[in-house]
Amino acid sequence: MSEKNKLGTFSVRAIETLSLQGWETGRHVSIEAYQDELTTHGFLLNDVARQILESFAGCSFAVPEGGIAWIVFNITQARHTFKPTHVPVLEVLLEEEGPCPAGGGAGHILFACPSGKVALLQEQWFSLLAADSFADLLEAILFKDLRHCHEVPNVEECCPDW
Predict the structure, then answer these.
(1) Which domain holds residue 19?
(2) Which of 40, 106, 150, 162 could form a disulfide with 68 if both were Cys (CB 3.0 to 4.6 A apart)?
(3) Is 5 helix (H, G, I), strand (E, B) or coil?
(4) By mean pLDDT, which of 50-54, 71-75, 142-146 is the weakest?
(5) Are the CB atoms for 128 and 121 separated by under 8 Å?
(6) How far apart are CA 58 and CA 15, in angstroms?
């Protein structure tokens, strides 16, 4: 049975994989510190990013067989190379307003948009993988299952100046 939530429907295999690494369905943690850190550094926390963090904040997952080797749900890791001044560029690429960092790992940053769309940006702006829900992107992260994801074109051309 899969878990239905506001982030999409998590597959049985995703729930099992995450559970084996300590995550629990229905997990809900305080994200006040994350919200403060985002605000302090000029990011706006949207509802979808809030939901991801409430369920996953502080978790880290090793996924050597997945689309990326590991992912951590902490804001410091997520905003390592991404600055608030880069948000407008990402908005154009995603055709969405207000993407907010919600995690990162293995050279990637996870973003969540208010619409529910999520994206995984390679830190050097080499690639941007997008999906309509976190559950869909989680399949790509954990299992390299890209059926419900798409690569956003021309990402390298839009890389902001460092």
Answers:
(1) 3-158
(2) 106
(3) strand
(4) 71-75
(5) yes
(6) 17
